[in-house]
Hints:
7-stranded mixed beta sheet
Amino acid sequence: MPPELVDCHSLVPSESLSPPSISPSQQSYPSVSFRNSRGSKSMSFTRNKILPVLVLILSSLSILRLVRIALTTSYTSPLLAIALPPKLQRPLSGFSENHRTSANEAAISETEFKLLSNLIGEKAPCNLLFFGIEPQYLNLSAVNDGGKNVFLEDDPYKLSTFRVDSNHTRMYKIDYKFHAEKAYKLLKQARGNKSCAPDSGLRNSSKCKLALTDLPKEVYEVKWDVVVVDGPRGDSPHAPGRMATIYSAAIMAREGNTTDVVVHDTDRMIERWYSWEFLCDENLISSKGKLWIFRIRNEKNSSRFCPDKRIVVQR
Length: 315
């Protein structure tokens, strides 16, 4: 309950609160006198005349301040426009709320890009697979000169915006079934499910809900040296999540000789869960910021992903 308030009137004699009796003719108001430039005449303004002038001045200052704030917040830095080649620049308006509002919002940091660029540079020319498209990743495909670069993207806007001029780089439109809110349920179903084991493959594991079984044929036929997982969005419960991409990348990696799987946005719960579950923390070879790199060796015939935990299939 709020504290009780003490009646202040009970503490002071009532006589002391009575105003002195002054007739209207005796009332006076303070005045302010100004002299003109010649000093020959003074003007007297009462309080009633000054108040409207002050209100007008303060209102004008407030309006000017609001206009200045509006102009400042609506200004777009020219650095953003020149950071990308003309073909990769997005319009400032005209796209839906599902699209990120700026090119830098989903971009990997400078240190993350350097780590990934060094990894690809050491392996180039190599077979490079991306789940997700970002401008920086198109630059990385140029680092992998002479190698194979494949981008898998579910956002039609990005596919129509980004262009590549190389016979060694291709983009495919794919679809994802599950939103991020299904992550825990899917992980629980996969544990102990024989159809989700590492030796099940992707195209033959139609009963595993996490398996991406309708990817372009090329994706299944190539043994990938590097797989980068930065898609789909997965940035809200109702957005497509990265559960299937991390799981499928883990399956692909175990079918190759030695494959590095790169997962971005590992500050998010789903990316951490699924990386630990299917890529295994003992395979983590490097990290920087929100970027983790796992090195997976050929374990196609293994019945479990991680040696001491996670998915174990009972035969």
